[in-house]
Every structure is written in structure tokens, then in C-alpha cells.
Amino acid sequence: MRILVTNDDGIEAPGLCALADALGALGEVWCVAPDRERSAVSRAVTMSRPLRATALGPRRIAVDGTPTDCVYLALHRLLPAPPELVASGINRGPNVGDDVSYSGTVAAAAEASMTGLPAFAISLDDRGDHGDYGPAARFAVAIGRILADRGMPDRSFLNVNVPGSGASEPLRYAMTSLGRRCYPQEVEQRLDPRGRPYYWIGGSNPGVCEDLPGSDGNALARGVVSITPLKTDATAGDQLDLVGAWPIEGFEREA
What is the pTM of this model? Predict the structure, then answer.
């Protein structure tokens, strides 16, 4: 089995190395990942300049683009044949709730799912530089094995979050829905040496807005792995009739 591994923390990230090493038990692993950290770029595709791919070793390629760029190039140009499985991670820090809208890690799995490939994103609830990726890597092998065997519905994929240090083993898991995140909404203004302002978006780490039972954030808080099925069809089906009933002045709705 051929497996594509990518991430948004960069080709040298320890989480990527741990994931690639572990998935080697399932087949031939190809790493195609950004040449630097590209966190929070969501599903950005680079179209304003050419992309460069640099081979760093056997089946190990760095791309000067986004995680979505990496998957697209891997599937349509860089790999000798399509993979049977795509894994994105292991991300440093969780991707729960509203994080999935920003995450490059999740975006890479979404891109793979749009081509019909079984895919998953996996993150570790630890933002430290020396996190233990071992438990997450072992869980990734189990998820990868069953995904390769059973596949996923069209344009669907899995978002997996693994508790950080201190979680009891063997790990327990729960099927979860997306929770809600509270972002600090901080913008720090500074001055460059010439007195011109510049800005940093971010600040302190986000927290869980609501401790929703059955959510991914709730599972992590309990030391349980969360598995959330996601799909790229973002249609709000429950809103079709509501919005359709609005009278839009000067226009007629098709019957």
C-alpha cells in the first residue's frame, strides 16, 4: 500500500516524522510537506507564483507552498501512482471545533478526500516542543489500517485529536461532533525601526467556549481521543427553506 503523509508544521516537524515512521508498518510511505511551518493557512492554493519541490531523500519531498499545494502536487505530479491512504499530521496542538476552518493539517485531508481517497488528519493536544507523539502515532496506524480497508463516503474524512501527556493508556476514543472554540481576538501593534506600525494576529492559545457533551473538546478534556467525521460539502441544508422563504424585492424565486 502506498501512503501519502503531509502536515502544516513543516517537513522537519517531529510529528510528521513520528507519523511517517509509524505508518511504515502499513506500506510504502511518501512524505510531501511544506518546507516550513504553514499553520492556519486553511485550504489556500498557491496560484500567483510557481511552486518548487525539493527532494530531501527517498520518498521525502519539501514544497514551498501550503499543505493543500503539497497534496495536489503529490497526487497529480510527484508520486509515481496515486496513494491508497492520505494522513496529515501529527499536528502540534489540537484541531478541534472552529479550528478546522483555519487548520492546514485538516485542509490537507480535505483535499485528499475530494479526489475520493480515504484520508485523516491527526493532532496532539500538546503545544510543547518536546511532546510525546508515540501514542498518537500508534493510534494513527490503527485508524489508517481500518480506513484503507473500509474507505470513507464520498468527500468525507476523519479529524482525530489525541490527548497530550498524562492521558491514561491504553487510549480510549469517542465519536464526536465539532465543538466551539474561543479565540482571544488579540491584535498586537508594534513599530518597526522606521516607526511604521505592523501587527501580530493571535496572542494566547484559544480555549473551549462551551463544554458541549459529545464534542471533540469535551473528549480531549476527559483524556479521550476524539474522532470526528467531516465532509467538504458545507451546505447548510437546514437553512434552505428558511432563506428560501425570504422575499427578495424585485426578483422572483424559481418555482
Answer: 0.92
